[in-house]
């Protein structure tokens, strides 16, 4: 029992750490999106606000990048899904040896770094444009086209892998039987193989859309002077972040949750229809409950709840709270300035007074003997004394030329 209890605590602790690591940053970003602080933080909490969503949608660079990303992603899906499907069908029809070679060629773009793909795309299409005499205003030097071409080169491989996984479960006898019954290859493809690949087509389209939308390594080179949503976000983060990015995270999380819940309702309904338990089930046997758990009903309910939340948030006014917080900050700043001023005055009062100048003739209290006293360089003055009386002159034949006092000033 003790061993089982200890193992249960360890598993619980590991699960807690795992989910904290997985969902902790998301929870923090959701909270910071509604804090009025200009820097994303949870504490200290200032005011509840929804203004950061308006700041996000008011950023023209981000909005234009979002539009460019959507256009590029739709274009990538339109090209990458058919190309990936064609590659998967080609691999399924080839022999083992040739299949391995072609698979290696088609899967290589995924293994190449995005930086290399971006630079090689610019170099290739630039050289092709110069070879045909195209100018810089043509499609060969368009950031949108280069980004589309660069992303398709590796996103198509993602779609191909999805189709290959689905085709492994397909029985080719079905198409052979259709051909034996008189169907053309096109009819067999449209009526047998294509419906079977329907879930794979949806998955491949969704995967390629996300791969294109969030790509940065290749796009940062191929977009040239333009911008996409990811490059605009990266530029904004480099120049300083604010809670508007947290507001973006809230929007993405909300869309993801709605999509996941609707998909779960759809999957459960399909499972119930496939297994034939709709009549025996308590939920699907009740017309009211069956309507409530329908994917479309679930989507409408979630969209309505989201719309009400957005409307109520747009009506919230946090200006009064922000004014109070600003007043508190200014008051706190004044208190700090006053405390600093008093501290400086106290330090000036406690500092020792300057030492008095040394009086000439007195010993200097300095250990250097007054060498640095400003008055030490002044010439010394001595009191005037009465000169001694001149010695009487002695009459000599040399006229007192050798008198010691003869050189003194008279």
From TrEMBL:
Ranges annotated as spanning the membrane: 12-34, 66-91, 103-127, 139-164, 192-213, 245-267, 288-311
Keywords linked to the UniProt accession: Cell membrane, Membrane, Transmembrane, Transmembrane helix, Transport
Keyword match Cell membrane: yes
Pfam families the UniProt entry points to: BPD_transp_1
The ABC transmembrane type-1 domain, residue ranges: 66-263
Family: Belongs to the binding-protein-dependent transport system permease family. CysTW subfamily.
Name the UniProt record assigns to this protein: ABC transporter permease
PROSITE patterns noted in UniProt: ABC_TM1
CDD domains, A to Z: TM_PBP2
Organism: Roseibium algae
């Amino acid at each position: 029992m003790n061993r089982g209890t200890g193992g249960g605590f360890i598993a619980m602790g590991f699960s807690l750490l795992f989910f904290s690591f997985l969902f902790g940053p998301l929870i923090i970003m959701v909270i910071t999106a509604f804090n009025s602080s200009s820097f994303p933080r949870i504490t200290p909490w200032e005011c509840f606000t929804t203004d950061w969503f308006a700041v996000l949608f008011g950023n023209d660079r981000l909005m234009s990048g979002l539009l460019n990303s959507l256009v590029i992603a739709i274009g990538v899906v339109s090209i990458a899904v058919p190309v990936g499907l064609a590659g998967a069908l080609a691999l399924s029809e080839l022999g083992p040896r040739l299949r391995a070679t072609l698979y290696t060629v088609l899967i290589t773009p995924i293994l190449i770094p995005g930086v290399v793909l971006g630079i090689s795309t610019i170099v290739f299409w630039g050289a092709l444009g110069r070879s045909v005499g195209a100018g810089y205003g043509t499609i060969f030097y368009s950031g949108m086209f280069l980004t589309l071409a660069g992303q398709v080169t590796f996103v198509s491989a993602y779609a191909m892998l999805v189709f290959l996984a689905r085709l492994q479960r397909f029985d080719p006898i079905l198409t052979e039987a259709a051909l034996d019954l008189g169907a053309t290859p096109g009819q067999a493809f449209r009526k047998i193989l294509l419906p079977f690949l329907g879930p794979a087509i949806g998955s491949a389209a969704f995967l390629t859309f996300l791969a294109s939308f969030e790509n940065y390594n290749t796009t940062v080179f191929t977009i040239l002077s333009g911008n996409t949503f990811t490059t605009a976000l990266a530029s904004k983060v480099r120049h300083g972040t604010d809670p508007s990015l947290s507001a973006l995270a809230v929007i993405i999380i909300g869309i993801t949750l709605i999509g996941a819940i609707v998909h779960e309702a759809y999957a459960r309904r399909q499972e119930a229809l496939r297994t034939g338990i709709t009549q025996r089930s308590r939920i699907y046997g009740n017309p009211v409950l069956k309507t409530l758990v329908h994917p479309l009903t679930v989507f409408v309910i979630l969209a309505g709840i989201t719309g009400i939340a957005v409307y109520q948030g747009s009506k919230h006014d946090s200006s009064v709270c922000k004014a109070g917080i600003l007043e508190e900050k200014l008051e706190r700043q004044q208190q700090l300035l006053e405390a600093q001023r008093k501290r400086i005055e106290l330090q000036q009062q406690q500092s020792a007074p300057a030492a008095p100048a040394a009086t000439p003739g007195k010993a200097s209290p300095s250990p250097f003997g007054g060498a640095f006293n400003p008055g030490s360089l002044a010439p010394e003055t001595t009191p005037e004394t009465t000169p001694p009386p001149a010695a009487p002159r002695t009459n000599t034949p040399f006229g007192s030329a050798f008198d010691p006092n003869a050189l003194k000033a008279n």
